[in-house]
Amino acid sequence: MTNVNHCWRQLDLGFDARALISEEGQPTHQAVEPDPSSNESTTELSALDSIFTAALREVANKEPPPDVEARFYPYAGLSSTIRLRRGRVLARVSDILSPSPPRVLHALACILVAKLYRLNCPDEHERVYREYTSTADLQSVTESVRRSRGYKCTTSPRGMVYDLAELFDELNGRYFDGEVKRPVLSWSRQRTRRILGHHDNVHDAIIISRTLDSFRVPRFVLEYVLYHEMLHVKHPARRENGRTVYHSPQFRADERRFDRYDEAVKWLEQIVSRVRSRRRARSTRRPR
C-alpha cells in the first residue's frame, strides 16, 4: 500500500494472514468540516487545479482533460482524496501539504490520478512524495495535527464474550513482565473482516475488530491479534531509508514467541480464504 491510500474509492489491501492485523497509524476519523471562510487565495486554488490538470494529461493521457476542482482541506492528517463526479474531477489535499514544493504536489496529484483511473503510477512520483512526507519535521507536524483535529471512535473493552482489558493484563504478565502501559482498549464499532486490529500511537489506542468477539473464535486467536498490537507498543515504528518500518526483525522475533503462533496464523488464514471467496463471487456475479 502506498502512502497515499485514502482515495474516496476503496482500495484493496494485500491479503495474507498477518495483513488482517494492520500497521500503526490507521486513518483517524476527521473532526473538521470545510471552512467556507477559508483564507486561501484564488491563486493558490488555481495553481492546485493546474497541477491536477497536468497530472491528468501526464498519467491518464486525458486530452482535453476534464474540469478540475482541487482544494486544500483541513483533514486530521495527510489524507488526500479524489473522485470523478459527472465528468468533473474533485480532489481534496490535506492542508498540511499546502506549503509543499510544486514538484511534491505534482507527484501527489499523479499518484491520486493513477488511483482514480486504476493505472500504474511512475515510481519516481511515489519516491518524491514518500521522501518529502517521511521527513521528521513533517511527521511531527502531522502527529500534532492529528492530535488537535482528530478523534478516535472507541466503544468499550468489555465485549459480549471477551474482555480486552482482562486479556491485555494476562498477556502483559505472560510476555512483557507487566511493563507495557495499558492504552485505550476498545472493540471496533462494526464487525470487520479485512482489518482485525490496529494500534494508533497518536491516540494511544488499540482497536480490535468486533468480529473476534464471538464464541466461534477461539480465545488464543484473539489473544494473538491483541498480542501483535501490544508488540507495536513495545516496538514503535521507526524511519529507515525514507520508509516507515512497522515490523522490524525484533518485532517478528517477539511475534513468534506467542505460544500458539502457527496455529493462530493458520486460523486467520481461514478468514482470509473466506474473504477471498466472497470477493471472487461478487466479481463474477452477473446482473440480472
Structure description:
This protein has 288 residues and is an alpha/beta fold. The chain is 41% helix and 13% strand. It is built from 8 helices and 8 strands, in the order αβββααααβββαββαα. It has helices at residues 42-60, 102-116, 123-133, 136-149, 164-175, 219-234, 249-255, 261-284, and strands at residues 68-73, 80-85, 88-94, 184-187, 197-200, 205-208, 238-240, 243-245. A 3-stranded mixed β-sheet has the order 1-3-2. The protein has a 3-stranded mixed β-sheet with strand order 4-6-5, covered by helices on one side. Helix 1 crosses helix 2, helix 2 packs across helix 3 and helix 5 packs across helix 6 (219-234). The two termini are 35 Å apart.
Within the largest sheet, what's the order of strands? 1-3-2
Residue stretches low in confidence (pLDDT < 50, at least 5 long) are 1-43
- Which value, in Å, is the CA radius of gyration? 21 Å
Estimate the global geometry from the Cα principal axes: elongated
Supply the number of helical segments: 8
Strand content: 5-15%
Name the helix and strand elements from N-terminus to C-terminus, one letter apiece: HEEEHHHHEEEHEEHH
Helix content: 40-55%
> What structural category arises from helix and sheet content?
alpha/beta
Tell me about the largest β-sheet: 3 strands, mixed
Number-wise, the strands total: 8
The pLDDT mean sits at: 79
Q: Span from first to last CA?
A: 35 Å
